[in-house]
User: Which sequence fits this backbone?
């Protein structure tokens, strides 16, 4: 983007932030640490860290692996699932390659069935995610699944995970989320002084860093961001529309949407999906009698569209709007993601009726064919302010 | 002062000259394989204070210096429709390759919109293809359908490719061509009506684009939506009119009165 600022994280990885994260993980692997891959925000990373392993987010965002995936998977399937699968069959995801085990969840039909097809490649544990989060049975069921995950990790890695370690990692998550919140605050400023790609850089490293490393990085970045604030400069032209982008996860090739928003003169101030800020907004209760129940309670508040009813997403959207003060709301729906697609009408209603904000749903995949179609809609959205 | 709007669509390119009060002239030509060359041809020998481009080719034309600014076809149609029908609240545009519905605020600015531009179903391309299958000129297609006696022959496919083979087999079965034509029109109007209702239908209801010249589409839309669409005399130049108006507003010769776009840069 056209930014008036010097790079936020200034190192040799400026052009390849994915490699930065990869090298951090590889360095830790060399010192004997294990790595456990995951696909989704519902994977409780506290258990992975409690046995001193590194949680690793797996590849899911490239058009390049979809053709290979379609040799087995139907074409009319979510690109995120197709891409994830293609990365594994073509053995091109370095994060999967270095993972010693993989955690998966039954968030949607497509993922659930795709996981069956890759379950023989690495030790894989599928967690049965309750999808009626308001029912009294949901919490004990999910707590039970988290206990089962502990059993899986202990068996696979011949180790034991104590409740005290889990409790300690709950505190680490809360600490990390607080630190990330300090960075996100600079996007909430008017004008924002941190771009969406810089937000992604910090988000992508957050898992791989231990809390002390993260704390050091955040202090350094906050100092830089404060200098940006002091300079009086900000992102975007005066009056540029501030954009909240929510819906399906966005990364890699689907960041075309974020680029188009920027090219049309917008400033992305909030990345609301699981790939962005959503998973850092969780607070886990500390010092409870049962850390598994505390984890279950917290994780079930993640407002994914696989939940029914997903009223938490509407309440979460209200809070995001209050914090980030967007001028427009963009809902990204990946092709064939029925849950987010159907839910989009409720997000539209909330944005337009309750907040009086222009709203645009963008249904897309990882290909570039629809870039100009998206551009017309985005330009019209900004014109309608 | 004279400004121009140029609307680069998939099938036609429209150029409209505006003198600050009224349209001086409007030209509609086939887009052809090279829209840039077609635009150059249209603009050759003419001079305008300001040219604004709209339509899918807008950025290309502006980058090559043929236009001073661009606006989307959404905004262009909202502006153009409002000039022709000052209280307009809903604008439907069905062009050669896309269709769109725009809900217009009381002050004239577009409030919400929906576009179909991914597939030919619900666009002029669908009607064109079906007319050709029935051996009719697209201009005569609507009139032919309106001559049908009795029930329409229902079409089950909406995909242009599948619908074409369905029409072929219906004709082969000896179905009356006019009743098949009526069924084809019903299919497209059903699809368009759903899109109109999703965005929200309010009066006055303005209908632009080449397909607005089809009397059967107009009749069926009125039946289904319970509201008679108003079709301007030149439905294919509404986008170009909006672009020319925007050029005039930017050049400081906006028509008087409150305007939803006045604060736009």
Assistant:
């Amino acid at each position: 983007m056209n930014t008036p600022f010097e790079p936020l994280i200034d190192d040799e990885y400026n052009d390849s932030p994915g490699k930065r994260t990869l090298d951090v993980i590889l360095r830790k692997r060399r010192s004997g640490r294990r790595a456990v891959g995951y696909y989704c925000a519902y994977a409780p990373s506290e258990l992975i860290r409690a046995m001193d392993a590194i949680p690793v987010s797996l590849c899911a965002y490239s058009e390049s692996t979809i053709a290979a995936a379609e040799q087995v998977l139907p074409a009319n399937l979510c690109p995120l699932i197709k891409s994830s699968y293609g990365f594994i069959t073509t053995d091109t995801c370095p994060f999967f390659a270095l993972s010693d085990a993989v955690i998966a969840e039954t968030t949607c039909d497509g993922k659930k069935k795709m996981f069956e097809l890759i379950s023989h490649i690495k030790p894989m544990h599928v967690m049965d995610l309750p999808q009626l989060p308001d029912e009294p049975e949901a919490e004990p069921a999910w707590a039970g699944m988290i206990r089962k995950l502990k059993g899986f990790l202990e068996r696979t890695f011949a180790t034991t995970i104590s409740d005290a370690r889990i409790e300690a990692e709950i505190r680490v998550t809360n600490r990390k989320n607080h630190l990330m919140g300090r960075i996100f605050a600079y996007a909430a400023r008017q004008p924002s002084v941190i771009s969406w790609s810089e937000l992604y850089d910090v988000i992508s490293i957050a898992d791989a860093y231990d809390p002390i490393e993260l704390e050091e990085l955040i202090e350094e970045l906050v100092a830089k961001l404060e200098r940006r604030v002091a300079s009086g400069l900000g992102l975007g032209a005066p009056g540029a529309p501030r954009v909240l982008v929510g819906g399906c996860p966005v990364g890699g090739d689907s960041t075309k949407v974020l680029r188009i928003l920027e090219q049309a003169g917008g400033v992305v101030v909030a990345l609301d999906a699981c790939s962005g800020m959503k998973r850092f907004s969780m607070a886990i209760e500390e010092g409870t009698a049962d850390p598994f129940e505390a984890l279950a309670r917290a994780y079930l508040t993640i407002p994914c569209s696989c939940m029914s009813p997903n009223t938490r997403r509407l309440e979460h959207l209200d809070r995001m709007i209050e914090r980030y003060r967007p001028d427009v709301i963009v809902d990204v729906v990946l092709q064939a993601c029925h849950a987010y697609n159907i839910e989009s009408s409720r997000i539209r209603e909330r944005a337009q009726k309750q907040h009086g904000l222009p709203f645009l749903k963008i249904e897309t995949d990882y290909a570039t064919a629809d870039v100009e179609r998206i551009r017309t809609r985005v330009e019209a959205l900004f014109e309608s302010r | 002062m004279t400004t121009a709007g140029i609307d680069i669509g998939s099938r036609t390119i429209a150029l409209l000259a505006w003198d600050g009060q009224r349209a001086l002239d409007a030209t509609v030509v086939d887009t052809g394989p090279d829209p840039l060359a077609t635009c150059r041809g249209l603009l050759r020998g003419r001079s305008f204070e300001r040219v604004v481009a709209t339509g899918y080719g807008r950025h290309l034309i502006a980058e090559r210096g043929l236009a001073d600014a661009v606006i989307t076809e959404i905004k262009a149609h909202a502006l153009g429709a409002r000039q022709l029908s000052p209280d307009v609240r809903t604008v439907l545009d069905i062009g050669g390759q896309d269709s769109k519905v725009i809900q217009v605020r009381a002050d004239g600015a577009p409030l919400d919109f929906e576009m179909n531009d991914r597939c030919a179903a619900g666009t002029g391309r669908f009607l064109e293809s079906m007319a050709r299958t029935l051996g009719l000129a697209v201009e005569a297609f609507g009139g032919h359908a309106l001559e049908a006696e009795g029930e329409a022959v229902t079409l089950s496919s909406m995909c242009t490719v599948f619908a074409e083979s369905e029409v072929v087999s219906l004709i082969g079965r000896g179905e009356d061509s006019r009743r098949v034509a009526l069924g084809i029109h019903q299919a497209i109007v059903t699809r368009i009506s759903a899109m109109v209702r999703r965005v929200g239908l309010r009066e006055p209801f303005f209908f632009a684009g080449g397909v607005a010249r089809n009397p059967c589409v107009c009749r069926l839309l009125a039946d289904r939506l319970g509201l008679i669409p108003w079709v301007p005399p030149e439905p294919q130049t509404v986008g170009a009119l909006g672009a020319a108006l925007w050029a005039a507003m930017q050049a400081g010769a906006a028509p008087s009165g409150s305007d939803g776009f006045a604060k736009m840069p």
